[in-house]
Structures are given as C-alpha cells and as structure tokens.
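Usage example:
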Amino acid sequence: MDLSLTDEQKLIVDQVRRFVREEIVPLEDGLDPDADSLPPEDHERLAGRVAEMGLYGLDIPPEFGGPDVDIVTRTLLAIEMSQHRAGLYAPCYNVFGGAGLAQMFEANDDQKQRFLFPMLRGEKKTFFGLTEPSGGSDPARAIQTRAVRDGDDWVINGAKMFISGADRADFGLVFARTDPTKGRAGVTCFIVETDTPGFHVRRIVHTLRAARYATELQFEDMRVPHANVLGEVNGGFAIANDRVSRQRIPYAATCIGVAVKAQELAVEYAGIRETFGDKLAHRQGIQWMVVENEIDIRQSLWITLAAADKARRGEPFRTDSALAKIVATEASGRVVDRAMQIHGGYGVTKDLPFERWYREMRIRRIGEGPNEVQRHIVARDLFGSSLR
Amino acid sequence: MAVRLDKPWRRLDSAAVAALSGQLGVYQLSDDAATVRAIVRVDARSLFGLRGELGRELEERGEGLFFRLEVNHQPRTRWLELMMVHRADHGRLPSWNPPEDGVGLGRLSPA
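Running the assembly step on the lines above writes:
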C-alpha cells in the first residue's frame, strides 16, 4: 500500500484546508456556539466558492453530475472539513453539498425523476428512517413498523426514533416489516413523502448533540403507493445494511478531523500557557498527553485510510470499516478529553469548541451502530460466519 | 420532558428577574398570561443567562408582561421544538418573534 499522497490529492487537501481556516472558522465567531447552519447569504456564497473549486456534491457519483473524487481522497477531505467547532455533525455547514440518501441511486427511472434528481438539485430534503423505539442495532429483529398491502397501496403503521431531519424533509426512506415470518428477509424500504396523511413528526429528541437533532416519528394508517417501494419487496434489509457499512468510513474520518484540530489547539496552548514559572509544554505530564493524542490520531488515520483504500479497490471492506469506526470514535474521544484537560478551566467553557466536541463525540461510540456491534462484526470475521 | 412548555405564567418585574439564575434555557413572554407572544432562547452568548435576557426584556418592554421559562442546556433545539409546536397548535409563529425566526423551521405534529 502506497502511503504517500498524489500531487492531486495534496493540492485538493491543501485547498480544502485553507477554505476551512479562512472561510469557515472566522464565520463561527459570529454564530451561536451550538449552531449547525450558516446565514443563507453566507451559505450561498460559500457553496458558490466550493462549486468554483469543482468540489460541490463530493459524494455524488460522476454519472449523476458529481466530481470524480475517489473514496480515499474523500476520506482525506472529510478529515479536513470537520476541523472546526461544528465540524463533527455539520462539516463546513454542508456548503460542499452531498448526495443525500445514497440508496436513491438504486431507484427505478420513475423514482429517479420524482425523488433522486430533485434531491441532487437540492430541491428536496430527505431523512433516513430505520431505527425504532425497540432498537436500531439489530434492524432485522427490531423493526416492528408494519406495512400491509392494500390494492395499489401499502398501509404503514408504527414509529421511528432518533431520525434526523424528518421535520424539514420532503421525503425519506422508511423501513417496515412486510413479512413478519421472515426476519431480515421480511423488511421493505419505502419512499415516503412527508405530506402523506398519517405521517407525524411527534417531537424533537433532545440529546448531547446540538446539530442535526433527532426526531420521533409516528405513522398512522399511512398509505404509500406500491410505486414508492425502493428495490424489491422484502429486500429492504440489504439496502439498510449497505448504507450502514458505507457510512462508517466518513463517520470515522470526521472524528479524526476533530481530533486533529483539538491536538493542534492543545499543542499551541501548551506552548504559551505558563504555570509555576514554566510553560505547560515543558511539563512531562503534558508532553505525554500530547504524545498519547498523536498515537491515537495516527492509529485512527491509518486504519481508516486502509478501509477506504479497500473500498476504492472494490474489495470487501465491512470488517475494515467496522475497525475504523471503533478506533476513530474511541481514540478521538480520548484526544478531545486530553486537549480539554490541557486547557484547564477554559477547556470546559463555551468560549472554546472542546465542550461541544466532548458532548458530540460521545454519541459517536453509539451512532451508526454501537461499537459493541462493530466488535461483533469483526469477531464474526475472525471466528467465521457460524458465530451468532 | 413534555413537548409543550406549560408552566404557570409569572409576572415579569424586577423582583422576579433578580430571583432568576444565570443559566441557559428558553422562555416565553405573554401580555395577558395566556397568549404566547414570543419564544426566546438564551444561549451561551448571553452575558447573564436567563436573568440577563429577561432583565433586558423588562427594561425594553416595561412592566405588565408575564413569562415562563425552562432551564435547559440545549436551548437551541428546545427553542426550535417550541417554535414548531406553537406553529402546529396555532398555525403561525408568536407575533413578537421576527419573521426570520421561521426560516428553515421544520414541521411537527405533536400528539
């Protein structure tokens, strides 16, 4: 494996790094400490700059109009884009655009016209409705939302939990049980428009996270046309599973970006802050904390890039992305914690970004599949598929 | 935690303000102890938290108002929720909130 960046990668990474430092970070001085969006005029201006850089819609496949950037480079860019206060859950406040629901690329031609293309043009917002009050780590068994065929429609009843963006979405993907006898082979994915009668966003679920808050959904006799089934009836589990596996690499990368920024701030502060007549940087206790940070960051970085490289080469990467998710989320949490400690009392104030990172980073060990489930995935790879 | 903020209204005067904490949170204002006129969030940019912001309201709007509050360390998401609930219940935002508060606001249909 070649560990050096190509000239093109260096150029793009440097370009995005400067963009974050010169455009995003200064704007944050005027935003709420827990803001997850920019004023519309700033968003429009910066999205225009990103388009000029040729990097708008990084996750959109080239055949659908996105820039042709491989997953290793996108991982490197995700690390850069998260290096600011809101970076963990709102990297660059989304001025780089995004593919939205990647599963929609599997839509049929009719669904592409009605949903995918408006989504890519930024005309329609989306949500992803998988997790339920009964759980999210084991969707094959936990999904209790039922869909029953009635003529040309499906009638859906049930609830979803921890669903981001549903209150502002135009449509979303809802996974429902269509055959209660078949476990994972009895789940279907539906495209649901949020103005459908019976679709309710009942409340915001308040958490440690300030950005991309979660909501609770309820479906009451919600009729969805059969034409809105994404993929095959009873084929929804594969769609959900594919999404979860893919998400782990950028999920790990944004954690690493925050850790890199926290470490940078810690090193800088330790070099100027004096206690008992000497700089913090001259204290062995502080030096070792910074070194431990560096170990955590580099381990996370290489494991995550190795997973991305496997994905780029088209090799199976499920175990590698699970490892990346485990290592990056846990290591980055430790880095933020140490950087906060080095900053002392200021570290826990809202004057600095650490307290937000500290709160939001804690979620990362649970989100996108808890780390215990990731360990189970790795164990299954090591012991064989007979392990349940 | 209840979706709606339905604590009893309290008269907004200097004694009430002096008794408030400087914590983060959200508050509602009314001019008749029944109608919500404004929903306001108090985040970390406020100098003295709820006490400072309600003191400012008293200074700028004068006596005769009522308020109720919720101490909440996530004032932003709680404020968004209260705004959405108000719009779901009344079909509009509180009259003292500026129109820009509704930009990008989501939709809730609370039970």
